[in-house]
Design goal:
Number of strands: 21
Strand content: 15-25%
Shape: globular
Radius of gyration: 22 Å
Largest sheet: 7 strands, mixed
Distance between the termini: 60 Å
């Protein structure tokens, strides 16, 4: 039997699909990435083409194996990580999606959420699911699709239609698709649907009844890290070889795992399209009183699930993309830093990026984006700085809520994701939080976490301690701001947020 040299992971994100191969030291030895189209049919609507995502997945795998001369027989196992909540429905017999995927950022279900809130409040399902009522989650998207198409709902009842978040869609296709593809999801992704019971880790019948969702369409819920494997890739697929798929984690839980935050009280923040701060709270779910999400962090085989508190920010790196593509004050993302560094402060300018409303800790779909504090003195440099600072301020709001809910005083924050390349943002983050910010050598911890999960399940890695030893520090940012200035800046940020609320009427 050929010795296994690698583990690999597919990272299907909001803007792109990546495939990376890792060695025993947790170092990447090859990979490829392809962006996919963002579809905006109407204001507030955000969609992806599931077929394009599947085709891109095949392309990145094929390219990587060929370019880096990696033999599939040398791969021990595959892990998958994915954009969460994004909803796909497809035909069981043809394998074709019945519509575009509805993306987690999509706002079309606002009215459904309003009705649910009227009949029980924003946190009416929190004890069961750990989640507030919000457009963010999959259940409202499914309800919207079925309300719009009664024939589709009837097909769902007879088992002709399958539902999945992106992990389910990819695993089904990798394991054969219409030819007995495996229809599963893991506990982390299931915990983002508003349909899973947080304690039993099963689909909750009451939630299914409330949203009128047939159980026949749902995938089987599995552990995030599965030593028995979910299934094997088919020889007819992109690997052209049978490899076990042994891990699946939602992207932010995968990043927590990749940052080796295995102990209660350890936290990470990922700066990607959105921004997501997660705190490991151990084997007992902590229900938030301050607008945070309670979610499953991971589950290893038959061991107890580990839970996390999460603060979700809808707009972070995508705000920089907006400044490039729409505002056109930069021609490439790194230029935002060059502009911002030309000024010593924001000159009183604040940018609240509530393009999709505000997520944690507000959960306000009536909010909209604003730039405030403009004067004749304001230049594009100040706006660039305000764009970067917006992510740090939003993180501070979540950070404060997290400490209140968990009763844990955080002393350091591990960070990862593309925006951690911004020195000015990371220093400001340390300053406004008043704690040390640590960035690891490998900042793409989302895909690393999925690979770690697959490696652990397949015994490619021995245990969690071996994974911890792989974590190495790249850079530390130490706070260097006076308390007076910190309080002043944050007070103005809170004022700006209040101005962004109530813009859309009847949407609370």
């Amino acid at each position: 039997m050929k010795q296994k040299k690698y583990v690999c992971a597919i990272d299907q994100g909001t803007t792109s699909t990546r495939f990376l191969v890792f060695n025993k030291n947790g170092k990447p030895v090859g990979g490829h990435q392809i962006e996919h189209k963002q579809i905006y049919p109407f204001p507030g609507f955000v969609e992806h083409n599931p077929v394009e995502i599947w085709e891109n997945t095949c392309k990145v795998i094929n390219y990587t194996l060929k370019k880096y001369d990696i033999n599939p027989s040398e791969i021990a196992a595959i892990g998958i990580t994915n954009q969460r909540e994004t909803t796909v429905l497809w035909d069981r017999k043809t394998g074709k999606p019945v519509s575009n995927a509805i993306v987690w950022q999509d706002l079309r279900t606002s009215k459904i959420c309003e009705e649910l809130v009227k009949n029980g409040g924003k946190f009416r399902f929190q004890k069961i699911t750990g989640l507030p009522v919000a457009t963010y989650f999959s259940a409202t998207k499914l309800k919207w699709l079925f309300d719009k198409n009664k024939k589709l709902k009837q097909k769902a009842k007879t088992g002709e239609i399958l539902f999945g978040t992106i992990d389910s869609w990819l695993i089904w296709n990798l394991t054969g698709g219409v030819n007995n593809g495996v229809h599963i999801t893991d506990v982390t992704n299931a915990s983002r649907t508003l349909l899973m019971n947080l304690k039993t880790l099963n689909w909750d019948k009451n939630m299914l009844d409330i949203f009128e969702i047939p159980e026949e369409i749902l995938p089987q819920i599995k552990p995030s890290i599965e030593p028995e494997s979910y299934g094997y890739t088919k020889k007819s697929g992109p690997f052209n070889y049978e490899i076990p798929i042994m891990a699946a984690l939602g992207d932010q839980q995968a990043a927590l795992f990749g940052q080796v935050c295995f102990k209660k009280g350890e936290a990470k923040n990922t700066y990607g399209t959105g921004c997501f701060l997660l705190l490991n709270t151990g084997e007992n779910p902590v229900l938030s009183k301050n607008g945070l999400i309670t979610t499953v962090a991971y589950k290893i085989g038959k061991s107890n699930a580990v839970y996390a508190l999460e603060g979700s920010i809808a707009i972070a790196g995508s705000l920089v993309q907006w400044a490039r593509d729409k505002l056109k004050i930069i021609s490439s993302a790194p230029e935002i830093n060059e502009l911002a560094e030309k000024v010593s402060d924001n000159a009183g300018v604040y940018f609240v990026p509530a393009f999709s409303g505000l997520f944690a800790p507000y959960w306000r779909s009536d909010a909209r984006g604003l730039i405030i504090g403009l004067t004749h003195f304001t230049g594009k440099e100040h706006i660039a700085r305000a764009i970067l600072e917006a992510t740090a301020y939003q993180t501070k709001e979540i950070f404060n809520a997290m400490e209140k809910d968990s009763k844990i005083k955080l002393s350091v924050l591990k960070v990862d994701g593309g925006m951690t390349k911004s020195e000015i943002l990371m220093q400001f983050q340390a300053d406004i939080l008043n704690i040390n910010v640590l960035r690891p050598q490998i900042t793409e911890t989302t895909v690393l976490g999925a690979a770690y999960g697959a490696g652990l399940a397949s015994s490619f890695f021995k245990n969690l301690d071996e994974l911890k030893q792989n974590w190495t520090l790249s850079k530390k940012w130490i706070p260097n701001m006076s308390e007076k200035k910190r309080i002043f800046y944050y007070k103005n940020w809170k004022k700006a947020v209040q101005k962004s609320l109530n813009w859309i009427e009847n949407a609370k």
